[in-house]
Amino acid sequence: MNPLTERLRGAGISPTRQRREIARALLARPVHMTAEQVLNAARVRAPEISRATVYNTLALFCAKGLLRELAVDRDRVVYDSGLHPHHHLIDIDSGEVRDLPAGPWPAIDPAQLPPGFELAGVEVIVRVRRR
Amino acid sequence: MNPLTERLRGAGISPTRQRREIARALLARPVHMTAEQVLNAARVRAPEISRATVYNTLALFCAKGLLRELAVDRDRVVYDSGLHPHHHLIDIDSGEVRDLPAGPWPAIDPAQLPPGFELAGVEVIVRVRRR
DNA sequence: GTTATTGCAAAGGCTTTGCATTACG
DNA sequence: CGTAATGCAAAGCCTTTGCAATAAC
């Protein structure tokens, strides 16, 4: 039926009304959104949704691999629904995030890691400012 | 005289007692420290130093280019006194930060940036976990 | 009917602010 | 002396938590 609902089910997540609205805002296409933006977007169709539910759901989606959390800087966190390997270009003044193809940087060779560690992820952030 | 004091002067920073203690903790060698760690370290020799002063001073040192602020994740920020180009390896469980040589990643070609933007910095974070 | 999910409001943690006091040149 | 820096406590912001009400299966 609804592909988003199926995606939630596939990830082992009960597709409640609130979660479906959050998924609609976030998972329909690759986007970068703050928690507040997600709340506002979800409230368009589900006005009663609470901050707590948004935060719970964002953490749940991250844990299930539907989202990535991206620490833009000390006080900006965005949730990224682009699942393909990619990096980020960030306007340091506005906080706007844009995707970069993962191409320019080689993958990490796991053998180069310190002994006893395994790779959990690589994050590349290119910060720019308007000239 | 004192090389750290001279460095502060060279950066256009009045070397007050508190700032000298913060510089001693942070700038004497390349380290990664949280604001709280800086406060504790500075209080060893300047017990009256306040959180507000530490935060003010960290922001000042960053603005003057003596430090870089590194957003490890949503709730971990460290200040990095390593000034040479380098990237970071982070234990996602402990938050421990280690430097990586900048080598494996080529420098960004400024011509590749979107028009109207200039490069402000590149951050590479390799996240690992204990196996 | 049970169990999971939600909403609310309060609590939390870290950072910033306002302002009087103190140190500095 | 005049300006800049500091300390304190309060305020802020975003996020999490506790718990009763609600919805899902």
Automatic annotation (TrEMBL), chains A, B:
The keyword Transcription applies. One of its GO terms (biological process) is negative regulation of DNA-templated transcription. It comes from the Bacteria. InterPro entries: FUR, WH-like_DNA-bd_sf, WH_DNA-bd_sf. Keywords: Cytoplasm, DNA-binding, Iron, Metal-binding, Repressor, Transcription, Transcription regulation, Zinc. It is found in: Cytoplasm. Homodimer. This is Ferric uptake regulation protein. The gene is fur.
